[in-house]
């Protein structure tokens, strides 16, 4: 029987098959080049390279969601600002692994910046004294340029980001991923497998159409043995800034993330409201922490979420 790697996509022909690396199912698989070359399968040498490169990064967190539009990138930038403000003596990094939709440069207010490549690798762009960012958005000629790449090229870019960015000493590295459970996610998990991945943070919104895809993401984590640090329910409720009335813009008809987490036995880290000021902060590239009004529900909820993330990461150290 053909030997099928654990991280292979569905319908993998197996490493010993004549179609290894050549079948349609092989497109985008991180093992494709090795299988197609006919060289006996073995650990990807990039795994050890990435392990060494990230040896000075204490906690590595994947930010995932099977559903697009749930605010995953917004939450990642909010977490970055929150950790940097909470721990001014620690260094925080954000890796924008959403190759086709890099939004972190705009959200963090560093659009138009350029990265520099030296003998030690790419230097990330500094958003603040202890917050840095790497994104393909810095490598495009224009923010409007489309990245029209097949899976293998996107995987190669993720490999470069993980193996060639000179982060220095980092306490937290947040890796913002695109929606889904495909090429980029398989590559990120494979390449980080030997580097001490702390776990995954999964983002959802309350309605069932989002929870359907988030359940798939949680199943993805379970199959690839990625620890789920917890789920954040975003846009849980809208509080009118004028009359203070509460509205469920995305009704939790099946119990929302809380019911899902109880069913699947994963931690619920907290719920964030739908906050117009937070959306404006992300669009303008400002930190929400600098704009938030006194007694902000978002800030209170975010502090509680950060407490749980820090505690979960420390428990793995």
Automatic annotation (TrEMBL):
<dbReference type="Pfam" id="PF10609">
    <property type="entry name" value="ParA"/>
</dbReference>
<dbReference type="InterPro" id="IPR033756">
    <property type="entry name" value="YlxH/NBP35"/>
</dbReference>
<comment type="subunit">
    <text>Heterotetramer of 2 NUBP1 and 2 NUBP2 chains.</text>
</comment>
<dbReference type="InterPro" id="IPR019591">
    <property type="entry name" value="Mrp/NBP35_ATP-bd"/>
</dbReference>
<feature type="binding site">
    <location>
        <position position="35"/>
    </location>
    <ligand>
        <name>[4Fe-4S] cluster 1</name>
    </ligand>
</feature>
<keyword id="KW-0547">Nucleotide-binding</keyword>
<dbReference type="InterPro" id="IPR000808">
    <property type="entry name" value="Mrp-like_CS"/>
</dbReference>
<dbReference type="InterPro" id="IPR028601">
    <property type="entry name" value="NUBP1/Nbp35"/>
</dbReference>
<feature type="binding site">
    <location>
        <begin position="66"/>
        <end position="73"/>
    </location>
    <ligand>
        <name>ATP</name>
    </ligand>
</feature>
<keyword id="KW-0963">Cytoplasm</keyword>
<dbReference type="GO" id="GO:0005524">
    <property type="term" value="F:ATP binding"/>
</dbReference>
<comment type="similarity">
    <text>Belongs to the Mrp/NBP35 ATP-binding proteins family. NUBP1/NBP35 subfamily.</text>
</comment>
<dbReference type="InterPro" id="IPR027417">
    <property type="entry name" value="P-loop_NTPase"/>
</dbReference>
<feature type="binding site">
    <location>
        <position position="240"/>
    </location>
    <ligand>
        <name>[4Fe-4S] cluster 2</name>
    </ligand>
</feature>
<keyword id="KW-0067">ATP-binding</keyword>
<dbReference type="GO" id="GO:0051539">
    <property type="term" value="F:4 iron, 4 sulfur cluster binding"/>
</dbReference>
<feature type="binding site">
    <location>
        <position position="243"/>
    </location>
    <ligand>
        <name>[4Fe-4S] cluster 2</name>
    </ligand>
</feature>
<keyword id="KW-0004">4Fe-4S</keyword>
<dbReference type="GO" id="GO:0140663">
    <property type="term" value="F:ATP-dependent FeS chaperone activity"/>
</dbReference>
<comment type="function">
    <text>Component of the cytosolic iron-sulfur (Fe/S) protein assembly (CIA) machinery. Required for maturation of extramitochondrial Fe-S proteins. The NUBP1-NUBP2 heterotetramer forms a Fe-S scaffold complex, mediating the de novo assembly of an Fe-S cluster and its transfer to target apoproteins.</text>
</comment>
<keyword id="KW-0411">Iron-sulfur</keyword>
<feature type="binding site">
    <location>
        <position position="29"/>
    </location>
    <ligand>
        <name>[4Fe-4S] cluster 1</name>
    </ligand>
</feature>
<keyword id="KW-0479">Metal-binding</keyword>
<keyword id="KW-0408">Iron</keyword>
<dbReference type="GO" id="GO:0046872">
    <property type="term" value="F:metal ion binding"/>
</dbReference>
<dbReference type="GO" id="GO:0005829">
    <property type="term" value="C:cytosol"/>
</dbReference>
<protein>
    <recommendedName>
        <fullName>Cytosolic Fe-S cluster assembly factor NUBP1 homolog</fullName>
    </recommendedName>
</protein>
<feature type="binding site">
    <location>
        <position position="26"/>
    </location>
    <ligand>
        <name>[4Fe-4S] cluster 1</name>
    </ligand>
</feature>
<dbReference type="GO" id="GO:0016226">
    <property type="term" value="P:iron-sulfur cluster assembly"/>
</dbReference>
<feature type="binding site">
    <location>
        <position position="12"/>
    </location>
    <ligand>
        <name>[4Fe-4S] cluster 1</name>
    </ligand>
</feature>
């Amino acid at each position: 029987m053909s030997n099928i790697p654990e991280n292979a996509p569905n319908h993998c022909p197996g490493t010993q098959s004549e179609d290894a690396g050549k079948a349609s199912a092989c497109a985008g698989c991180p093992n494709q080049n090795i299988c197609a070359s006919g060289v006996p399968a073995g650990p990807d040498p990039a795994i050890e390279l990435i392990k060494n490169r990230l040896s000075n990064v204490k906690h590595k967190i994947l930010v995932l969601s099977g559903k697009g539009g749930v605010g995953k990138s917004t939450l990642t930038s909010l977490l970055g600002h929150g950790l940097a403000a909470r721990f001014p003596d620690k260094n925080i990094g954000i890796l924008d692994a959403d190759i086709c939709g890099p939004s972190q440069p705009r959200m963090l207010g560093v659009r138009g910046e350029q990265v520099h490549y030296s003998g030690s690798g790419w230097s990330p762009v500094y958003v603040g004294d202890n917050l840095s960012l790497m994104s393909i958005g810095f490598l495009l000629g224009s923010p409007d340029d489309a990245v029209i790449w097949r899976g293998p090229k996107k995987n190669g870019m993720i490999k470069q980001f993980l193996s060639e960015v000179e982060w220095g000493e980092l306490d937290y590295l947040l890796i913002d991923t695109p929606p889904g459970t495909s090429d980029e996610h398989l590559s990120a998990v494979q390449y980080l497998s030997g580097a001490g991945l702390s776990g995954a943070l999964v983002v959802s919104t309350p309605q069932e159409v989002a929870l359907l895809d988030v359940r798939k993401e949680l199943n993805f984590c379970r199959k690839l043995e990625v620890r789920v640090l917890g789920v954040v329910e975003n846009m849980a409720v809208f509080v009118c800034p004028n009359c203070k009335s509460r509205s469920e813009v995305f009704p939790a008809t099946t119990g929302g993330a809380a019911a899902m987490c109880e069913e699947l036995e994963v931690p619920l880290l907290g719920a964030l409201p739908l906050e117009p000021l937070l959306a404006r902060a992300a669009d303008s590239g400002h930190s929400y922490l600098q704009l938030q009004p006194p007694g902000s529900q978002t800030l209170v909820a975010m502090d509680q979420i950060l407490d749980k993330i820090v505690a979960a990461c420390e428990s793995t150290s």
